[in-house]
Design brief:
The protein is mostly helical. It has helices at residues 13-21, 24-30, 33-40, 45-73, 75-95, 100-128, 135-164, 166-187.
């Protein structure tokens, strides 16, 4: 029967694919390419440090209110919205790159807030769809694929930046991040039984 595995348990491949796809695309642009992009547009080390620090600061602080919101309105809305906000942050960097500090700060704010929405929602979604007996294994597997995005994203970003340039690499990251958000809208389901 569709939606069930051979042992009768729910088939979680759709959500599992979405959980794994929801992280790596954004890593293409932010960690390795952003400093180079902004340096190429005249920003110094201190300004780039501000941009790079603002992103994880907002992402970390924003997870507390986002976590409360995830429990009230559901996982999918914050995952999808967060991914689209991240994509918007990447596009913002390109749209106003003639003012690089403003572009960097606004993109860092959007990326931080988008990531803050996505992180607690994804972890809650994985937990919702896994049995307590194998939840830690599922979370470890999810985190493996998510965190692999940092390494794979940096490598892919280097290859893309060499081949297409820094701006096209950020654009590619924005498109892939938005597509991941749309896939999440299709594949992520709320808690079983809801």
């Amino acid at each position: 029967m569709r939606g069930r595995t051979s042992d009768g348990t729910a088939d979680r491949r759709g959500p599992a694919h979405a959980w794994s796809a929801a992280g790596p695309p954004g890593q293409l642009g932010t960690w390795g390419v952003f400093p180079l992009l902004f340096a190429d547009h005249g920003l110094g080390i201190a300004a780039i440090g501000l941009i790079k620090g603002l992103y994880p600061l907002l992402w970390g602080m924003g997870q507390i209110p986002a976590g409360h919101l995830v429990d009230r309105i559901g996982r999918k809305p914050l995952i999808v919205t967060g991914m689209l906000v991240q994509a918007g942050g990447l596009l913002t960097a390109l749209a106003i790159l003639d003012r690089p500090l403003l572009a960097g700060v606004l993109s860092a704010v959007a990326l931080g807030l988008g990531t803050a929405m996505v992180y607690p929602a994804l972890i809650a979604s994985v937990s919702d769809h896994t049995h307590p007996a194998w939840r830690a294994n599922a979370l470890g597997t999810y985190r493996f694929w998510r965190d692999l995005g940092y390494a794979a994203g940096a490598l892919a970003a280097g290859v893309l930046a060499d081949a297409l340039g820094l701006q096209m690499t950020v654009l590619t990251a924005a498109v892939l991040t938005a597509l991941s958000g749309l896939l999440a809208a299709r594949w992520i389901t709320e808690r079983p039984g809801q």
